[in-house]
Amino acid sequence: MSDLIIEHSLQLRLETPTGPKRLAQEITRCAPTEHLDPTPFLDPNVLLLTAGIGMNFSEQSIWDGYVERLARVPVAALGFAVGIAHAELPRGLVEACASHDLPLLEVPASVPLLKIDQYVEGMLEAEQIARYDRGWSLADECARLASRGAEVATLLAAIYAALELPVAVYDAFDSLIAQYPESVTWREGKSRAAQPDVLAMPLPMGLSQPCQLAVRLYGSASEIEALLAPVSSILALQLNRSVAVDANSHHDMQRFVNRCIAWSEATRSDVADAFHELGLSRRAETSLVVADLRGEHAAAAWKLRIALHDAFNDVRVTEIDDRLIALAQFPRDEPLRFTERLEQLQPNLPLVFRPPTRTIDELRIALVHALDLVRHVEHPVTAPALGLGAVVAAAAGRGARESAERFLAPLLEHDEQRTTELLPTLRVWLRNDAQPSRTCEELFIHRNSLSYRLRRIEQLLGLPLDTLDGKATCLLALRLVDLEPY
């Protein structure tokens, strides 16, 4: 509005003691009108133009009521033309505008209101073109960054540099995917709806529930929307990059996983062929991520996909039975930094990260181990190089399962015929690391009863339980019998 006052051709004069902050108010459009109550037809921040025809008021309360209604809209300013219905500005109007802090501009008789309207429209059109230019420049910069494999956070940093406003991306579950700068706090979940002064823009991703770009507002939402319209498509394409790649490899990933866990049916050659169909390099090291996305953890899917594609140049992802399984090659950074990012991603997410494997056989063992381990963790963990569950699964396809069932058959028969609980006792005892006190506490039995049961188990199985070999044999047998298909 201050631009209007300093424009010499308009010869406008400010008649109220209005401060700089009020004069800096943006004008959305002009509204020429002679209505005594034009407020039903006004938008916020319009410049109301009037000659005061019909405003032959003498009482101050009427002027106060008129201005109060305008201030309630609120209008940006009131332009009052003199020389048509009023030789000078009505005293009551000046006092009312000063009282309600509504800028009052005197329009001289030599300047038609149409001229002011045309000037404002021209300025608004020029500002709109400038915003479009800034928007397309921002989109061009983000497209250039995206073509170089930039992370989503890098694109948000570019948007922040253009807007000087904090920005973030949410997924369909109102979970925060990425933000810039990191120091700003954003609400998630149900509390997000109560977050004040935030503009949320759905990204054009072709999804029924797309991600949203959020901007912390300190000004006009319409201006920000116009500026971000072009770049939102670039950001959507970058987010969809991982989905598109993952969708193309979904069936191939399912085939690879199924062959890995089918020890009795799939040979090493079958697994190698399935890996080759994924388009991954057999000479490169392969990292592995398995996450449980059931229930509340479903919102972590987008975060994981973005984190994987940001951290690795080549990624294959699938979701099977609420579990996300990903293979990744050619890291952009050190694995240690990726594990730190996974721990910060969602602290309570059941997730297993397996550092790089070198061979198909090692990858197969690692995958089976991770699928077993993820059921027993409550936060992101790094899997060791070898796990008992994977070894047991590998052995199950080579006749070991049948041997384990035959080995444990005497206990099963004894329990069925005499209604004892020798087999459950053996399970609990081994699960409690062969600790008598913990075993008795879980089974609610006396220590003497446990000793009797263990001696009877030794007699039926024909091996001592006080040796490491005896314990290991029983543990492997139980694992083989209890092995579930993945």
Q: Given the C-alpha coordinates, what overall shape results?
A: elongated
Number of helical stretches of at least 4 residues = 16
N-end to C-end Cα span: 68 Å
Biggest sheet, in brief?
5 strands, mixed
Return Rg in Å: 36 Å
Report low-confidence residues grouped into runs of 5 or more.
none
Q: Report helical residue fraction.
A: 40-55%
- H/E element order: HEHEEHEHEHHEEEEHHEHEEHEHEHHHHH
Strand order of the largest sheet: 1-5-4-3-2
Strand content: 5-15%
* Structural class designation: alpha/beta
Oligomer: single chain
Output mean pLDDT.
85
What is the count of β-strands?
A: 14
Q: Quick gist of this model?
A:
The protein has 486 residues and is of the alpha/beta class. It contains 16 helices and 14 strands. The mean pLDDT is 85.
Record the SSE blueprint.
Blueprint: H1 2-6, E1 13-14, H2 20-23, E2 30-32, E3 47-50, H3 60-72, E4 77-81, H4 91-99, E5 104-107, H5 113-147, H6 152-163, E6 167-170, E7 176-180, E8 198-202, E9 212-216, H7 221-261, H8 268-277, E10 286-292, H9 300-311, E11 312-320, E12 323-331, H10 335-345, E13 351-357, H11 360-373, E14 380-382, H12 388-418, H13 422-431, H14 436-443, H15 447-461, H16 468-482
Parallel strand pairs: 2-3, 3-4, 4-5, 13-14
Antiparallel strand pairs: 1-5, 6-7, 6-9, 8-9, 10-12, 10-13, 11-12
Structural notes for this entry:
This protein is an alpha/beta fold and 486 residues long. It is 50% helix and 15% strand. The protein has a five-stranded mixed beta sheet with strand order 1-5-4-3-2. A five-stranded mixed beta sheet has the order 11-12-10-13-14, with helices on both faces. A four-stranded antiparallel beta sheet has the order 7-6-9-8. Helix 3 crosses helix 4, helix 6 runs antiparallel to helix 7 and helix 9 runs antiparallel to helix 10.
